Amino acid sequence: MSAALTDLGRRLNYAFHDPALLRRAVTHRSKGADNNERLEFLGDSVLNFIVAAELYERFPRLTEGELTRLRARLVKQETLARLARAVHLGECLELGGGEFKSGGHDRDSILADALEAVFGAILKDGGNDAARHVILTLYQPLLAAVDAGAIDKDPKTQLQEFLQKRLAVTPVYHVLEVTGEAHHQSFLVECQVPGLDVPVQGRGASRRAAEQAAAAKALERLVTG
Questions:
Q1: What is the β-pairing status of strands 200-204 and 186-192?
Q2: Is residue 63 domain-shared with residue 29, that is, in the same domain?
Q3: Which residue range(s) make up the domain with 200?
Q4: Backbone dihedral angles phi then psi of residue 11, each to the nearest 5 degrees
C-alpha cells in the first residue's frame, strides 16, 4: 500500500487487512472500471444507519421528524466533504485525467462520495464495529455540538446563538453582488465571523436566503474546525 494510503489509514485510526479495498475506495469512476461506486453505495447505507442509531440513543426526547432532519444535516454532502478534507482524503484520490485537471481532488461531490466509499471499505474489511468506531470518531465534534433545542431554528439564529454562547460576538453580513432582473435576482452575501480566517459566502434568490446560506456554511466550519 502506498505511503499516502497508509497515512490515510493512520488518520482514520484504522489499519486495513485488505489494502485493495482502500485503493478501490479512493478510485473515482473516471479512472477506470474498478472504482468506488459500489463501496460508496455500501458506505452511504452504513453511515446513515450508524448516525441514526447514535442520534436515537443521544436524544430520546426527539420525534421521528426531528431525528430525520438532524441526520440529514449530519450526512449531507457539504458535511462529508469537510470531514474528508480533515483527513486529507483528496490527496489520496485516484482520478482520470479530466477530473484531475479540473480540480476533482477538492470537489465536494467527489470527496463526499469517496468518504462514503471508505466507510464501505472499512465495513467490508473489519465489520460493523470497525465502521462504527471510525464514523463516530470522525463525527464526535459534530455530535458534541448538536443542540437539540435548535433543530427548528434557522441557520442565522443558530450561528448567532453559537457565537454569543462561546465568543460573545455576532456575525456581520455584507451584500457583495446582486445580479439578474428585478423579478429574478440573485444575491451573493459574505458572512464575517470571528474565529474564521476567511469570510464565507452564500447565494440565494433574496438577501435573506443568501444570508441564511452563508450562516449555515459559517456554522459548519466553526463546528468541524
A1: antiparallel
A2: yes
A3: 155-224
A4: -65, -30
Q: What is the CATH number of the domain that holds 207?
A: 3.30.160.20
* 192, β-bridge pairs: 172
User: Which grid coordinates belong to 55?
Assistant: 442520534
Q: What is the mean pLDDT of the chain?
A: 90
Pairing state of beta strands 172-179 and 186-192? antiparallel
Rg of the Cα atoms in the chain: 19
Cα 139 to Cα 54, 63, 80, 144, 153, distances in angstroms:
10, 22, 10, 8, 22
CA atoms within 13 A on the CB side of 208: 2
pLDDT digits (tens, 9 = 90+) for 105-143: 899 999 999 999 999 999 999 999 999 999 999 999 999
Contacts of 47 (CB under 8 A, 6+ apart): 75, 116, 119, 135
How do beta strands 200-204 and 172-179 pair?
A: unpaired
Supply the residues annotated as catalytic. Answer: 44, 116
Per the DSSP assignment, residues forming a β-bridge with 179 are: 186
Which DSSP state fits 21? Answer: H
> Residue 149: exposed, middle, or buried by beta-carbon count in 10 A (0-12, 13-18, 19+)?
exposed
